[in-house]
């Protein structure tokens, strides 16, 4: 079975397991870099694609600034179903639960086996804690190539674009510097991904 067929089979079984509202990864089998977020939001569910809402638009900008074409990388999430809660009469996002993350990793592992990336970029602490170590902190671990638990693949964690959006919204003076760090981290991961071997 070819990479594309293997990936299709996993995509179908993920939809059967998690439901038609679940959002699978997208990109080319053989992509050398895989970007992994936390879970889809409302827009992602509506469009059935990862990172297409506000955080996704910012991710596209950051990739472009790092000299990376989104079509060259694989983009996915640890959790395939939007985690929601009802609050104030509205459906809102909530952090994924441990069991949701565990189930997500089972599928993610098969998904990435079919894609075959050389390195992972983990966006935010949820994927970093789940895939590197529970004790991971951005302060200590951001920007370094670390060994992940996912197929033993090297992984680099950086700030989630949604976090950058919150900083920007709050008028934080840290926004510009942290945004620049994400662009640098993406560039470093891309260089690593394209090394020989
Ligand atoms: N945030 C994520 O972590 N993943 C998405 O797909 C969108 C927003």
Short note summarizing the structure:
This protein is α/β, with parallel strands linked by helices and 197 residues long.
What would you call the quaternary organization? single chain
Largest sheet features: 5 strands, mixed
Give the names of the bound compounds. uracil
Q: pLDDT under 50 segments (min length 5)?
A: none
Helix and strand run? HEHHEEEHEHHEEHH
Characterise the protein shown here.
Helices cover 46% and strands 15% of the residues. Helix 7 (161-169) packs antiparallel against helix 8 (175-193). It has helices at residues 3-18, 42-47, 54-65, 98-115, 125-131, 138-141, 161-169, 175-193, and strands at residues 33-37, 74-77, 84-87, 90-93, 119-123, 145-147, 154-158. It contains 8 helices and 7 strands; from the N terminus they run αβααβββαβααββαα. The chain has a 5-stranded mixed β-sheet with strand order 2-1-5-7-6, sandwiched between helices. The chain has a two-stranded antiparallel sheet with strand order 3-4. Uracil is lined by residues 37-41, 44, 50-51, 53, 55-56, 77, 162.
List the main descriptive attributes of the protein structure presented here:
single chain, 197 residues, alpha/beta, five-stranded mixed beta sheet, two-stranded antiparallel sheet, globular, binds uracil
Note the topology.
Elements: H1 3-18, E1 33-37, H2 42-47, H3 54-65, E2 74-77, E3 84-87, E4 90-93, H4 98-115, E5 119-123, H5 125-131, H6 138-141, E6 145-147, E7 154-158, H7 161-169, H8 175-193
Parallel strand pairs: 1-2, 1-5, 5-7
Antiparallel strand pairs: 3-4, 6-7
Helix pairs in contact: 1-4, 7-8
């Amino acid at each position: 079975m070819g990479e594309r067929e293997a990936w299709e089979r996993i995509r179908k079984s993920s939809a059967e397991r998690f439901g038609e509202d679940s959002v699978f990864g997208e990109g080319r089998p053989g992509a050398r870099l895989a970007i992994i977020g936390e879970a889809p939001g409302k827009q992602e569910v509506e469009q059935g694609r990862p990172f297409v809402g506000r955080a996704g638009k910012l991710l596209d900008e950051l990739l472009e600034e790092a000299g990376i074409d989104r079509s060259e990388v694989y983009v996915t999430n640890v959790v395939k179903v939007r985690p929601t809660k009802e609050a104030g009469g509205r459906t809102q996002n909530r952090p994924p639960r441990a069991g949701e993350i565990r189930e997500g990793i089972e599928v993610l592992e098969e998904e990435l086996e079919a894609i075959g990336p050389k390195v992972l970029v983990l966006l935010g602490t949820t994927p970093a804690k789940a895939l590197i170590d529970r004790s991971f902190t951005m302060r200590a671990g951001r920007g370094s190539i670390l060994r992940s638990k996912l197929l033993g693949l090297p992984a680099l964690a950086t700030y989630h674009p949604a976090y950058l959006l919150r900083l920007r919204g709050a008028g934080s003076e840290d926004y510009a510097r942290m945004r620049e760090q994400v662009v640098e981290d993406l560039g470093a991961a891309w260089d690593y991904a394209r090394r020989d071997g």
